[in-house]
Design a protein that fits this description.
It is a single chain. The protein starts with 10 loop residues before the first helix and ends with a helix. It is elongated. The chain has a two-stranded antiparallel sheet. It is 73% helix and 3% strand. It has two domains: 64 residues, Arc Repressor Mutant, subunit A; 163 residues, Up-down Bundle (Four Helix Bundle (Hemerythrin (Met), subunit A)). It contains eleven helices and two strands; from the N terminus they run H-H-H-E-E-H-H-H-H-H-H-H-H. With 243 residues, the chain is mostly helical.
Length: 243
Amino acid sequence: MEIKPIAQRRIYQDIIEQIIGLIRRGDLEVGDRLPSERELAERFGVSRQSVREALRAMEVIGLIETRHGGGSHITDVNIAPFLNMLAPIFLAKKGFEYELLELRFMLEVKAAELAAGSDQTEMFSTIEDSVRSMRAAVAEADAEKGVQADIAFHRAIFTMSGNWVLSKAAEFIVSILEVTVAYGRRLILSDPANSEELTRQHEKILTAIRDRNPAEARLRMEQHLTFVLDAYRRYDETTRTDA
C-alpha cells in the first residue's frame, strides 16, 4: 500500500483524500481495518493530532466506523448524516413531496430497465420475495406488511440496476418520502382495491425483469408509478377537502 508524506497544508483533509484514493484504487475495501493512529502518523509523516482530526471527520461523514477496542474500519457509504442535514430543507418547502415523487419516477423507470438487463441476479430473489409478501398482505388485509414489502421491492430494484450512484440517490429520495408520505401510502394500501391493483403491477414488473426484457420493465414501472402519483394526488385533494 503506497502512502505519500503529507505537505503542511490542510493536513487532515489531505489525509482523508489519500485514504479515499486508496479506497477508489481498491487498496482499502469495506471492512478493512486502518492502521493504528500512531502508525498512520508515521507513514503519513504528520502528527497524531492531524490523524485524529482526519479519523474524526471520516467518522462524521460515514466513511469509517470506530469500534471500541477494535480500531477504525472502512464502511459502506452511509448517507444518513447527509439526510439528517438536508431533510429540514425539503420539509420546509411546500409541495416538495410531488417534486420528489416525480424525481423518483424518472430514476426508478431507468432502474427497472437496467435491472432487467443486469447480471446481479442475486437481488432477484429479494424482489421475488417482496412480491410474495405483497400478495400475502393482500390476503391478510395487512397494510403495514404491504408497505414494508413495497419498500423492499423498490430498494432491491435500485440495487439490481447495478448503478451505485443511482442506488444512493434513490436511497436519499425514498428515505425522505418514507417520512413525509408514509401516512398517505398506508391509507392508499388500506383500500383493498388499491392493494390488489398495486400487487398486480408489481407482479408485472417482476415478470419483465425475470424475462430480462428492459423495455417491458420500463413500461410496467412507468404505468405503476403513474398510478402511484395519481393516487397520492387524489389522497391529497381528499384530505384538503376534508380539512
